[in-house]
Design goal:
mainly alpha
Length: about 150
């Protein structure tokens, strides 16, 4: 699977999530998972090193909160975020495009699985006769053409 975020984009996106208020690392992981509709869930091994680097760069501050650490954006982090709003918009656009691609892939997978199950369910009872097979082929081709036409408009 290709990387979800381009170089530096996750760092910027974490700052944008912290702009909404302080969060624990787990809350940031959950926010990312939610933003991607569950299709992407970064590991702690991805998030915490980025947060550590943001802290080392003075863009994020930490505060102990029981057994957890709360992360908050600093004035320098907010300045960085404001300076890179155009980049953040591009990251959001990329996320939206990724979500659309994932939705289409899921739709195609469900369609393919449904057709396969229908055809396999038919096979034990009786094989498809040549007319039924040709009808299936025709309907699938008509669906492909209709989708192609829809995409061109």
């Amino acid at each position: 699977m290709p990387p979800v975020f381009a170089h530096g984009a996750l760092r910027l996106y974490l700052l944008s999530l912290l702009e909404g208020g302080p969060k624990h690392g787990y809350e940031l992981i959950k926010a990312l998972k939610d933003r991607f509709g569950g299709a992407y869930s970064p590991s702690a091994g991805t998030i915490y090193p980025r947060l550590g680097k943001l802290e080392a760069d003075g863009l994020v501050a930490t505060e102990p909160s029981g057994r957890r650490t709360t992360y908050r954006i600093t004035a320098a982090g907010l300045a960085e975020l404001n300076h890179r709003r155009v980049d953040l918009a591009a990251v959001e656009k990329g996320i939206a495009a990724s979500m659309q691609r994932l939705a289409l892939e899921l739709m195609l997978q469900q369609f393919r699985d449904g057709i396969r199950a229908d055809l396999q369910g038919q096979a034990p009872r009786r094989p498809l006769n040549p007319v039924a097979l040709e009808n299936v082929r025709t309907v699938l081709e008509q669906a492909r053409v209709a989708i192609s036409n829809t995409l061109q408009h």
